[in-house]
Amino acid sequence: MDLLEVMKNRRSIRKYTKESIGEEKLLKILQAGMLSASSRNRRPWDFIVVEEKETLEKMSKARAAGAKMLEGAACAIVVTADPEVTDVWTEDCSIALANMHLMASSLGVGSCWIQGRLREAENGQSTEEYLRSLLRFPENYKLEAILSLGMPAEELTPHRLEELPTGKIHREHF
């Protein structure tokens, strides 16, 4: 499958089976993140892989809304960064997340991006502080997002190239 096909088929999957994704697939997803482009090749990110069901259930409360799928996920990858490494850490982390999202899809693994930066947990804390207390990442590190992973329990239709908003493409000037 070529990259455009992977992109067309990539959908945010929020319902998972109880099946494990397997260590080999998880490793490939993490490698895709580590191979991501970053400003001056600084790679400011650190990934926290969470597979313990109890922790995933607690993480499902890290957002006031939009993180419940973690309760049924096989695992999650929490993407954090040291902002002292580069001022474009959010962009670098986003590229890593996008690569992992695409790799998961290419392997038949469902995934969903759960924004963490600038979001609030169910208990009123920031999502970052909630997850920092749960996962113990350093005080100077910032949270970008969580990628939930699991074998899909739903099948969504692929995107269609004919439906792309091509009016958003401008040539030479706006």
From TrEMBL:
User: Mind telling me which InterPro entries this protein's record contains?
Assistant: Nitroreductase
Pfam families membership: Nitroreductase
> Which keywords belong to this entry?
Oxidoreductase
Does the keyword field hold Oxidoreductase?
Answer: yes
Q: Which family does it belong to?
A: Belongs to the nitroreductase family.
Name of the protein in question: Nitroreductase family protein
**Residue intervals of the Nitroreductase domain:** 8-63, 67-150
| The keyword Oxidoreductase is annotated on this UniProt entry | yes
Domain of life according to the entry: Bacteria
Q: Name the species this protein comes from.
A: Faecalicatena faecalis
CDD domains, per database record:
nitroreductase (cd02151)
